[in-house]
Amino acid sequence: MQLLAISGSARAASTNTALLRALQHIAPAGLAIEVFHDLAALPVFSPDLEGALTPAPVLALVQQVQAADGLLISSPEYVRALPGGLKNAIDWLVSREEIIQKPVALVHASHRGDDMLADLRRVLSTVTAQFNSDLFLRLPLMKESAASVLQIVSGAEVYPEAQQFLQDFATFCGCARTA
Ligand SMILES: Cc1cc2nc3c(=O)[nH]c(=O)nc-3n(C[C@H](O)[C@H](O)[C@H](O)COP(=O)(O)O)c2cc1C
After folding, report:
1. What confidence score (pLDDT) does residue 128 get?
2. Architecture of the domain spanning 2-178
3. Which DSSP letter does residue 69 get?
4. Can you tell me the distance from the alpha carbon of 56 to that of 147, in angstroms, rounded to the nearest whole number?
5. Is the pLDDT confidence value at 179 over 80?
6. What are the residue boundaries of the structural domains of the chain, listed by start?
7. Sign of the torsion angle spanned by Cα atoms 66, 68, 70, 71
8. Which residues does the UniProt record annotate as the domain NADPH-dependent FMN reductase-like (predicted)?
9. Mean per-residue pLDDT for 80-87?
10. Could you report how far apart the first and last alpha carbons of the chain are, in Å?
11. Residue 98 CA from chain centroid, whole number
C-alpha cells in the first residue's frame, strides 16, 4: 500500500514536514509513504489552465495522487486558516477525478491551529467522499527540529499511537479500494 503525505508548509525546517517524514520512517511493513513538500512549485490555480494547458508540476502532483491509495495531510495554521499554498494545490485537484474517492486523513504537528483544522476539514469533505475526520494524529511539535520530531515519534510514548494511526488509515484505504 502506498500513501502520499502532503505537507502544507513550504518552510525548510517545517515541523509538519518533519512529522510526515517521521511517519514515513516508522511506517509498518507493507506501507510505503511518499512525502510531498513542494507546494511552492505549483503555479497559482486558474481554470484557464486546466485540461491540455495543465502545468507540468501540477500534472506531477496529480500522478502522485493517482498512484496513492490514500493521502495524509499535515499543515500549519496561517492567519487562522489553511495556508494559501495548500489551498492552491487542492484547487488544482478539485475538478479532477483523481481526488473524488481518495481516502484522506489529517495529522497535525501543533497543539494550536484549530481554526485551520476546521477549515481544512470542511474543504476536504467537499473534495473527497472518503475524508475520514475520525482518524487524526496530533502531536505538540511546534518549534522542534526534524531530528527531535523523529526521536519523539520513534519514542516509546508516541510510537504505539503513531503505528496504530497508520495501521488504521491503511485499513481504511484498503476498505475504500475494495468497495
Ligand atoms: C504567516 C504566519 C501566520 C501564522 N498564523 C498563525 C495563526 O493564525 N494561528 C496559529 O496558531 N499559528 C499561526 N502561525 C504559526 C504556525 O502555524 C506554527 O508556527 C506552525 O507550527 C508552523 O508549522 P511548520 O513548522 O510546519 O512550518 C503562523 C505562522 C506564520 C508564518
Report:
1. 96
2. 3-Layer(aba) Sandwich (3.40)
3. S
4. 33
5. no
6. 2-178
7. negative
8. 1-130
9. 98
10. 16
11. 15
What are phi and psi for residue 132, nearest 5 degrees?
Answer: -105, 100
The confidence score (pLDDT) of residue 95 equals: 87
Per the document, the length of the chain is 179
Write the pLDDT tens digit of every residue in 102-134. Answer: 999 999 999 999 999 999 999 999 999 999 999
Residue 160 CA, ligand 1 centroid: distance in Å: 27
Q: Distance from the CA of 76 to the center of ligand 1, in angstroms?
A: 5
Residue closest via CA to ligand 1's atom 22 equals 76
Per-residue DSSP letter, 8: S
What pLDDT score does 177 carry?
80
Query: Distance between CA atoms of 45 and 13, rounded to whole angstroms?
Result: 26
| 57 vs 173: CA distance, rounded Å | 26
Residue type, 52: A
